[in-house]
Amino acid sequence: MVDRRDPEVLVIGAACVDIKGRPHETLVAGTSNSGLVRITTGGAGRNIAENLARLNVRTTLLTVVGTDNYARMIIEDTAATGVDTSSVRVASGARSAIYLAVLDASGHLAVSIDDMASLDLINPPYIYAHRELIERASMVVVDANLSTKAIGTVLALARRSDVPVCMTTVSVALARKARRYLKDYTVVIGNVDEASVLCGAPITDVASATLGAHQLVATGVKLAIITLGPRGLVYATGTSNGYIPAVQCEVVDSTGAGDALAAAVIYGYVNGFQADEAVRLGVSAATLTLTCRDTVCRDLNQETLYQRMVI
C-alpha cells in the first residue's frame, strides 16, 4: 500500500523501459552477438525513487509516460515497490521513454541509445501544478534529464520553502544543463566525466576529483560526490572531504549502480547521517546493485544496506 502522506523525498526525473543486452563472450562490433536480453523498468529518477522506497523512505515520483503498454509497465512496476505514482503524468499521444543499452561481457556499458523525447513534457506548468509536493518534501531530487527551464522551476519553488535539492547529472551531455544552477543545489552526484563538465576542467584521478569536489562546494553545493567507477569515489563538504575505494565484487550489470548510490546517500541525508556515513551507505547500495541483473536490486533493503556498509 502506497503511503499518501507528505513525501519525505520527491523525485522528479526520467522513467523509462530499459532494454539491455549482454553478450556471453567478448563483444564483437559490426555483427550479431549471442547473449542475454532483458527488459526492465528504468530511468534515473524512477530508479532512485524505487531504491528509496525499498529503504522505507516515503517517496513520490513526478515523471511523464505515454499511453502505450510500456507506460502501464512503468507505472505498475514502480507503484508495486511502494513509490507514490499518483501524480505521474500520462500524456496522450506520447511515446514512453526507452533506454537501449549494450553491455560488454563483464557487465559494463559498451554503448547506449536513449529515446527520451517525452521527458520534455516534465515542464514548468506540470511542476508548478504539483508545487505543494515540493513545498512539503524533506528533499527534492532531480535528474539532469529535465530541461533547463524545468530545473529552474524546481529550484525556485524549493528555495521558496527552504527545501534542499539533490542533482544527479546522469550523463556528460546532460551535465551541461545542471552546471547553470550549481549554487542552488544542496547535493550534487556525478561521475568523473560529468564532474569535468561541471568544473570546466578534466578530472582523471582521485587527486583531481578531490579538487573538483572542493570546487563544487565553493560554488555553494553542501555535499559534492564524484564517482570514479572501479576506483571508488571522493566527496567534499564545507568542513570535510574523503576518499572511499570501491568494494571488490563480481559485476553482473553496472546499470543502475549510480542511481542506487544516490538513493542511499539521500536516505542517509534525510535521516540525519553525517556526510561520510551517508556516502558509505551509497557505496554499499552501489556494490549490491552491481551484483544484480536488474537495474534496481530487488534484494536492497535497510538490512542488506548495512550489511555491506564500508567501515
Write the layout of secondary structure elements.
Elements: E1 9-12, E2 16-23, E3 35-42, H1 44-54, E4 59-62, E5 64-65, H2 69-80, E6 89-90, E7 97-103, E8 109-115, H3 124-129, H4 131-136, E9 139-143, H5 148-160, E10 165-168, H6 172-179, E11 187-191, H7 192-199, H8 206-219, E12 223-227, E13 233-236, E14 241-244, H9 257-270, H10 275-290, H11 302-307
Parallel strand pairs: 1-4, 1-9, 2-7, 5-6, 9-10, 10-11, 11-12
Antiparallel strand pairs: 2-3, 7-8, 12-13, 13-14
Helix pairs in contact: 1-9, 6-7, 7-8, 9-10
Report what the structure shows.
This protein has 311 residues and is an alpha/beta fold. It has a single domain, classed as UDP-N-acetylmuramoyl-L-alanine:D-glutamate ligase. The chain is 37% helix and 22% strand. It contains 11 helices and 14 strands. It has helices at residues 44-54, 69-80, 124-129, 131-136, 148-160, 172-179, 192-199, 206-219, 257-270, 275-290, 302-307, and strands spanning 9-12, 16-23, 35-42, 59-62, 64-65, 89-90, 97-103, 109-115, 139-143, 165-168, 187-191, 223-227, 233-236, 241-244. Helix 6 (172-179) links the parallel strand 10 (165-168) and strand 11. Helix 6 (172-179) packs parallel to helix 7 (192-199). The radius of gyration is 18 Å and the shape is globular. The model has no long low-confidence stretch (mean pLDDT 94).
